[in-house]
Structures are given as C-alpha cells and as structure tokens.
Description:
The protein is an alpha+beta fold and 107 residues long. The protein folds into 2 domains: 1-59; 62-107, no CATH class. It is built from 4 helices and 6 strands. It has helices spanning 2-6, 40-52, 63-67, 84-94; strands at residues 10-11, 18-21, 24-29, 32-36, 70-73, 79-82.
Amino acid sequence: MGKLITAGYTQSLIDECVIYIGSVIFIMYFYDGIFIGSTNSELTQKVKTLQQMGLDIEDWGNLSENVGVNIKHFKDGSYEFKQQALIEAIVDDVGIWHPHSRSNILP
C-alpha cells in the first residue's frame, strides 16, 4: 500500500482496501486487486506507472472477462450488470435446469 500512497493514491476513509487517484479506483483483496477507471488508456497508464515503480502487476484484461460479470454502460449514465455464467453454473449445480425454464429480470 505504501508505494501506491507514494504514487499519489489516497486511501479511502471508509474502507482501507479501496484507494484512488483522480478517476481511477483500486480495490485490493489479499494479493489481488481491481482497477476501475473511465478509460482504458488511463488504466493502462496507471498500471504501467506502478510497474515501473517495481510493483508486480499483471493486466488480466477487462473485468467482465475475468469475474463473469458483463457490465453495460448506457448513455443516460445507468449501468446493467449480468452474471449469465454464474446463473448457469448455479442452475447446473442444483439440477433445476428445465427446457421450458426462462430467466426473469429482477429489480
């Protein structure tokens, strides 16, 4: 965490595992973390800067490709989150698949 603070990041007063710089947010979980930002170029630049400081950071690509959550951002500023892979895994695990089943949108 010290190197991130040195690089200009600010630690959240609410959750010590969340730090941010400008519009980039980094969420740390044990030895893993997630960068969230406005643009891919901004995220790439922040990751490269931290790598140049000697931090061992691997870019695993888009978040939706890694955790199974598809995130869609709409022009009105709203977001849609879908976890189709997780839903299918749960249906398979509990054996409730039926050819006439359908999904429902929950509020």
